Amino acid sequence: MSSACSADKGASSVQSAQGKQSYQAIETILNSLDALVYVSDLHTYELLYINDYGSAQWGPIAGRKCYQVLQVGQNSACQFCTNHRLLNANGEPNGVYVWEFQNTQNGRWYQCRDQAIRWVDGRLVRIEIATDITERKEMEQQLAEAKALAERQANTDELTQLYNRRAFFNLSRQVVHQVHRAGNMLAVVMFDLDHFKQVNDQWNHAAGDAVLVNIAAMAQSIVRGSDVLARVGGEEFAVVLPDTNEEQARQLAERMRTGFEQHKIAIKQGQIGCTASFGIACANLAEIAGGVEPQAMLEDLLHKADQAMLKAKNSGRNRVCLYNDAADRGTAP
């Protein structure tokens, strides 16, 4: 054998050894990752490779499709498969696509990095690296729930669980804007509990709180889902009623008034009866100029409803009074 042939064979042997070492190094790296790495045919979905992490979580390939190994009860490609996102209009790989997904088999969340590449035999395959982010998602969920709770608490009256004054004005402005755009009727009802100070003085503040809670619950059961009911003061409440005319508002207020009058609130010392005085103001927002701000419209209606409520109190309490532009203009609130 010539020295040249021996040298070629030696070089080939070295290259083969180096290639084997490189393959083993890549295998070692992939199998050391704390993440799923798999490769599947982009068109047939046949699993061509899965690392040790994936095998430990989902089992061996065993000639199966990716959806058969990684998902539950799948007999065809997943509806959420991202393969179509990995190729451009010319059918060539177009880079990495990152998304988050909750696995159907183990319920855990993963951040997935998907990419189409050419496999060793030239075919297009999908390579995915999926990192478990379940703890992060749980933390995000906890933070979202805490934020939602804080928002509810910021908008909720602690005692009655109705909207508080802040939430009332924020929500009511939105309602006024929507009703104004539609050109519909809007009504505002304000009511104040009669002789409420006497309840606190005669019984105690705990009894007064019980009255407020009961009244709030009764009022909530009467208003519609689209209405905005809130406790806006100590014993004062307000309701904004979209798409409601004067007669409809009066009927709703009368149902509340009658319900309050007939209801007895049980406390340790006995039973407490409580009534309320109601004031109503209505407007046809189609007749109001477009340049008027929702805040100004709302404040005007609240002012008028407050005047009507004062008239109800001055007329003997436990009654419903409507604001009359001609008769009530100039009445001190």
Give the termini distance in whole angstroms.
117 Å
- Computed Rg: 36 Å
CATH class term of the largest domain: Alpha Beta
CATH architecture of the largest domain: 2-Layer Sandwich
User: Major sheet, described briefly?
Assistant: 5 strands, antiparallel
Reading the helices and strands in chain order gives: HEEHHEEEHHEHHEEHEEEHEH
Chain-averaged pLDDT: 89
Task: Offer a concise description of the structure.
By secondary structure, this protein is α+β, with helices and mostly antiparallel strands. 45% of the residues lie in helices and 23% in strands.
Commentary on this structure:
- It is a single chain.
- Helices cover 45% and strands 23% of the residues.
- By secondary structure, it is α+β, with helices and mostly antiparallel strands.
- It folds into two domains: 33-136, Beta-Lactamase; 156-328, Reverse transcriptase/Diguanylate cyclase domain (Alpha-Beta Plaits), CATH 3.30.70.
- The strands form three sheets. The chain has a five-stranded antiparallel beta sheet with strand order 2-1-5-4-3. Strands 7-8-6-11-12 form a five-stranded mixed beta sheet, with helices on both faces.
- The N and C termini lie far apart (117 Å).
Task: Spell out the blueprint of helices and strands.
Blueprint: H1 3-32, E1 36-41, E2 47-50, H2 52-58, H3 66-70, E3 97-102, E4 109-118, E5 124-132, H4 134-155, H5 165-182, E6 185-193, H6 196-202, H7 205-222, E7 228-231, E8 236-242, H8 246-262, E9 264-267, E10 270-273, E11 276-284, H9 294-314, E12 320-322, H10 325-328
Parallel strand pairs: 11-12
Antiparallel strand pairs: 1-2, 1-5, 3-4, 4-5, 6-8, 6-11, 7-8, 9-10
Helix pairs in contact: 5-9, 6-7, 7-8
